[in-house]
Structure formats: structure tokens, C-alpha cells
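WARN retry 2 of 3 for item q-0093 after timeout on previous attempt; input resubmitted unchanged.
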Amino acid sequence: MPARNGRDRTARRERAMNYNQIFDQAIDRLHSEGRYRVFIDIMRNKGTFPNARCFAGHNGPKPITVWCSNDYLSMGQHPKVIAAMEEALHDVGAGSGGTRNIGGNTHFHVQLERELADLHGKDGALLFTSGYVSNDATLSTLAKLLPGCVIFSDELNHASMIAGIRNSGCEKRVFRHNDLEHLEELLAAEAPETPKLIAFESVYSMDADIAPIHAICDLAEKYNALTYIDEVHAVGMYGKRGGGISERDEAAHRIDIIEGTLGKAFGVMGGYIAADTRVIDCIRSYAPGFIFTTSLSPVLVAGVLAAVRHLKESNEEREAQQRNAALLKAKFAAAGLPVMPSQTHIVPLMVGDPVRAKKISDILLAEYGAYVQPINFPTVPRGTERLRFTPGPTHTEAMMDDLTTALVEIWDRLELELARAA
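OK item q-0093 returned
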């Protein structure tokens, strides 16, 4: 028996070594392709964003400037948001206590859903723990409820939308990015009685372009399809009250389901959908990603509630952010840096190589105290690796000048091509 136990232990060790080898090879592949992801160890300075402290690669904190935050309007630093969260913490405590149907529902959740429904002109809204979960849970559940549903998905849709469509088990048709002719060709090929859902984004965060919402809605009406729009990079940012591109373009009433995030322009955490109460009730009742997940902490919900209410009334943050985004684009272009065409608040700088993108990011942080993460595959296609800058309302022109000078120096050092003025 002891000999047998010894053989068993040896076999287990060999199996473990095989598993470890597989894991090691998987990580080695990422290193060899130049797309191994490193999470920078930083702390933001409350009230002085984009100033932060970096703890990586040196003794003690080093001052840095953050250029890649999705807290687009610095609402995570806003006094109203912080005060609301502090008040909620001392009023109700830290956690929610469970799922929404078992102890995790609070008056804060109810209030925020009402505000979000009002923001988008819908009858109802439903909170999720993240924008990823709201996309995955809603799309997978919707398609399962519609017998024989076919989903038409823009080829650049976010990974969470792709996951939701895949998890639905339904048929899908992928149309070329913002290509209306291709979309109509695919719609026309389906039987008129087939349930159809068109899923797309308003702002595509990596290419910084915008969907033709009204034209897509025209096709949806022509072919009797539901519409689902992801507004995560637009809510809070566009429209008189921050309702997104669909509000700005006066198209919200034509969209069946509007999905958004609470972790970007609103500065805290969470996701949501806004729609007709029938749709909300179905997702609330059938989506496992909602039913079986502990609800957002009421402290977080209170903070978002303050942010949403503030941005419904204030355009100051949006206008300052748009000015700064336009200014940074102009400075990059004037310096000959390969800034990509952008219709939005996002400023992408094309590199086209994962190793060089990571190298530029590393030099910026180590030598210039400027923090921006490289964007590599699978977030963007191979060969289109880039740096993605998100200037906010509190970035100064002096910061932009320093960043532009640093980038030009690094471009020269790495012998990358600049578009020099004649």
C-alpha cells in the first residue's frame, strides 16, 4: 500500500507539472507577442485628478499624470459624489446584503433606476453590477425569450455584447462596421416573421467614431427588428442631460433598449439598461446574471445617483472635456503624431505594433510621469495597436504640451515616423 501511495503522489505531481506547463506556455505566448498586460500600481489624489501617485518600479510614491482614465468627467472626484457616498456609508453601512430579491434591494437602487429611466425617456431601468454584465445578461436573455431570434451585430461591438450573443445560443449575423448596406442585405435575407435584434454601439471607444443611429432605426422599422444600443462611452458625455448620443441626436425614443455604464462618465461603478417595462420585467425575472448576483453596494449607488442628477443639470464638465479633447487632438496633429480621426472625446494615437506601444507607454511613465496604457489585441485587431488618451475637464494645456513634447521625443528615439510639416 505505501508503494502504491508513492506512485499516486508521483502521478499527481506529473499531472500538475503538465498543467503548469500549459499555463506557462499560455503566458509565454503573450510575452512573445508583446501583449502581456501589466497593471500599474497607482493611487489617485482625491480632489486633484488627473494627479496621482505611482508605486511601481521605485521607492515610495512618484507623482504622475493619468491620461487613460474612463472617468471621463472626473465625477469620481466630484464633491457631491463623495459626500453622497460618505452619507450613505454612515446611514446604511457598506454592503447591500444580497441579491435584489433577497435583501439586496434598497431605496437608493429604486431611486437610481427611476433617474436612469427618466434620463433616457423610458418607462423603466434595471441596475447591474457592471456594464459587461448588463450586456451579457440582457442580450443572452432577450434572444432566449424570442423563439428563433437572429441577432445582427456590428463587427466592432464590445466583448461583452459578443459574449451575450454567444451565450444566447441564437443565430447571429455580423455586419461590417457601420455599413448600412451590408446590414440591410443581411436583414432582407431573413424571413419577415423571424424575430430580429440589431445590436450596436453609439460611440466605439477604440476607433472613436459614432454609429448612424437614425439610419439603423430606419432599417429596424423596415424589417421589424428590435434595436439595442450600447451607450457606455456616451452616457453623461453627450446630450443636454447626459443621455448619450441617442439623446443628442434625438433618437432615444426610436431605440428599444439602451444600455449604459455607471463606471465611466458617472465616475463610480455598475451598469444598467433602460427600456419598456415589459422588457425590464422579463430581464429582471429571467436573467441569471441579474437574479443570482449580489446587488451593488448602496454606497456606490448613492454616489452614482448624485452624479446622474448633477450631470442632468450641468453641462460645465461636458463642455470642458470636449474643449480639452479638441485641443489635445490639435496639438498631436501639429506635432506630426499619428492621431487617428476622431468624432468623439477619445484621442487614439496609432502605433501599429504591440511591442512598440508597450515601450512608449513604459517610457512615458518612467521618464515623464505620464500614464497611458497600450491597447493591444484582442481589444483591437493585430497591427492596429495604439495608445488611447482620454483628456478630462481638469487636464491643463501645460500638461498637454508636456505630453506632446514627450511623445515627439520618444517617437524620434524609437525611430518611428512623424508627419513632419513641410
